[in-house]
Amino acid sequence: MFNYPSIKKNVPLRDLTTFGIGGPARYYLRAETEEDIIHAWGAAQREGIPVFILGGGSNLLVSDRGFGGLVIHVATRGVTVLAEGETSVTLRVAAGENWDRFVARTVEAGWWGVENLSAIPGSVGAFPIQNVGAYGQEARDVVQSVRVWDTQTGTIKTLTNADCHFGYRTSIFNTDQKGRYLKNPLQGR
User: Fold this and answer.
1) What is the domain range of residue 103?
2) Rounded Cα gap, residues 66 and 89, in angstroms
3) pTM, whole model, 2 decimals?
4) How many other C-beta atoms lie within 10 A of the C-beta of residue 35?
5) CA–CA distance, 108 with 118 (Å, rounded to integer)
6) Does 2 reside within a domain?
C-alpha cells in the first residue's frame, strides 16, 4: 500500500482541469515544495506506481475512470526579482504560479517581454515545455534558464536557454527528453 505524508486518495480530477472533466486520481498530492515533488516521485517509483505531473490543468482531458497512479499537482509559489537594471529584469518564478496572473504582475511592474502572452491558461511550469508563444513573443525569447529535477540522475540541474533546444512549439521537454525533467522554477529575463 502506497503511503506518503499528505497523500489523499480518490481525488476528483475534474475539479483540477479547465474542461471540468475526469474521474478520480487513485493517489493525489498537492506539492507546495520541490521536496514534496521529489520525495513523492521517488516513493511512487519505489512502489511501482505510475506518476502524472499536473500543472494548471489546461487542455487536459481525463478519463471518467480517472488515473490509477499518483497525481502530483505542482502548487509551488513564488516570484523573486534576482536582478533589475535600466532595461532588463531577471526573475525566478515557481512552476506552480498561475501564468496569466504572472503576466499581469509583469505588466503592472512595467516589465515587458511576456505581455502578449496574456490570457493563456495554465501554469508557469508549462511555459518552456512547448515554447509557448503568441503575437511574436515566445518562451525562448525570455527564458534564461530552467531549474529541473532530472529523474534519471536524481539531481537538480539548471538548463540554459540553449540546453532547452526551443523550436516552434517544442523543446527538449516535449520531444527527445520528454518525461525526464520536472521543472521548478523558471528563470527568465
Assistant:
1) 79-188
2) 42
3) 0.89
4) 9
5) 12
6) no
Place of cell 515557481: 94
The answer to the question of residue 56 being in a domain is: yes
Single out the residue of 21, 12, 120 nearest to residue 61, CA to CA. 21
The CA distance from 14 to 104, in Å, is 26
Please tell me whether residue 17 adopts helix, strand or coil conformation. Answer: coil
**Cα–Cα distance between 42 and 154 in angstroms, integer?**
9
- Cis bond upstream, residue 185 (ω within 30): yes
Q: Grade residue 186 by pLDDT with cuts at 50, 70 and 90.
A: very low
Give residue 157's pLDDT band: very low, low, confident or very high (50, 70, 90): very high
Instruction: Give the pLDDT band of residue 182 (cuts 50, 70, 90).
Output: confident
User: For 15, which DSSP code?
Assistant: G
Buried b (16+ CB within 10 A) or exposed e, 152-177: eeeeeeebebeebbbeeeebbbbeeb
Tell me the CATH number at 53: 3.30.43.10
